[in-house]
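Students often ask why we bother encoding 3D structure as a string. The short answer is that it lets us treat folding as translation between two languages. Here is a chain of 132 residues written in the first language.
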Amino acid sequence: MSDLLKGLVESAARGAAEEVADEVNAADRAYADRNRMALAWAVDRHRMGCDAGYYDDDTETEYPVVWVVLPTGQVSWHITPDLRDELEASRLHEQEPVGGYDGHDRDLKNQRIVRHALDDKPDRLSSPAVPR
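And here it is in the second language, the structure alphabet:
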């Protein structure tokens, strides 16, 4: 392989690696924002007198689960262990939801969030993925 071609390949590989690193950093930042938003929402719902809390999920890693019961159903998120101090300093109680985890998956959780955000008004729901 010529030196020029070798240099181009190495440069392209470096550029691709930097691009991937930038994407990973952006994803990490977005995930950190999502974790804090989930925690803040759970704390806010708890302050309003709604069911919300956190617990350690024995079936997963060391990631605690933050949960909220909305009028449209239970929603929850695994958050990263680095937020444990913030979690424990919050007003949330360490407890599982009454009846435990209800088995919702990500799609159902998102449907429940959208329905809650739209005040569960079917005439305002435009997504076919959201049950009416």
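Translate back mentally: Residues 3-124 form one domain. Keep this in mind for the problem set.
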